[in-house]
From TrEMBL:
Family, per entry: Belongs to the class IV-like SAM-binding methyltransferase superfamily. RNA methyltransferase TrmH family.
The protein, known as: 23S rRNA (Guanosine(2251)-2'-O)-methyltransferase RlmB
Domain RNA 2-O ribose methyltransferase substrate binding, residue spans: 5-73
CDD domains, sorted: SpoU-like_RlmB (cd18103)
One matching Pfam family: SpoU_sub_bind
Keywords of this entry: Methyltransferase, Transferase
NCBIfam families assigned to the protein according to its UniProt record, in alphabetical order: rRNA_methyl_3
GO biological process: methylation; RNA processing
GO molecular function: RNA binding; RNA methyltransferase activity
GO CC list: cytosol
Lineage of producing organism: Bacteria, Bacillati, Mycoplasmatota, Mycoplasmoidales, Metamycoplasmataceae
InterPro entries in UniProt: Alpha/beta_knot_MTases (IPR029028), rRNA_MeTrfase_TrmH (IPR004441), SpoU_MeTrfase (IPR001537), SpoU_subst-bd (IPR013123), tRNA_m1G_MTases_N (IPR029026)
Amino acid sequence: MEKLILWGKNSINDAIINKFPLETIYVNSTKLSQKLQQQTTVPVHIKNNDFFNEITNENHQGIIAILKYFPIHELNTIQRDKPQNVLVLDHIQDPHNLGAIIRTANAFGISHIIISKDRSADITSTVLKISSGGFIGIKFIKVNNIVAALKRLKNIGYWIYSSALDKTALNFDKLEYNKPSVLIIGNEAKGVSQPVLNQSDVIVYIPQYGSVQSLNVSVAAGLLIHQITKR
């Protein structure tokens, strides 16, 4: 598995504050090194800019951190934490879409995301970069079987909402969403799988009025997440 890398002062500062498992931090100045050593016990090393430019062509701001690992949680975390809204990603495969959805989920207060272990984009440095720090504060849960996970969540009182172009689907912004709720976003090409739809209490759709009859999955996710998290 590739080493996960964070860069930029804000992302790494957030990771330190939230006690992310950082292995090493690299900086390009003594001043920044001294400041960080007052904030964290993570080893800090000074490197020249050539070192940073070899690792990434992004705006690293002279600071890069290597993660020991990315924290993954068990499904029973949801039963313990009792979040009002849970996001389930049914085989999202594009890392850019995954990162964008994570960013949006964080912005609207989603704290728990379930993703499938197989046939899904993994958490990579690209995903973390696209999320713009959105992964901080979110608990990620990987499951072998989404249907089995949904059955467990239904047993503890969660309402299951899926997005699909289905004849039984209801307009997503005309509903009162029951709580606690699970929102399922489907694969870029195939949407929410039929076995997952079969577990849904309500299927919703986003009405569209132009000649284009589909939205990018991260855009659709943004609309749905905003709606289901309204207070």
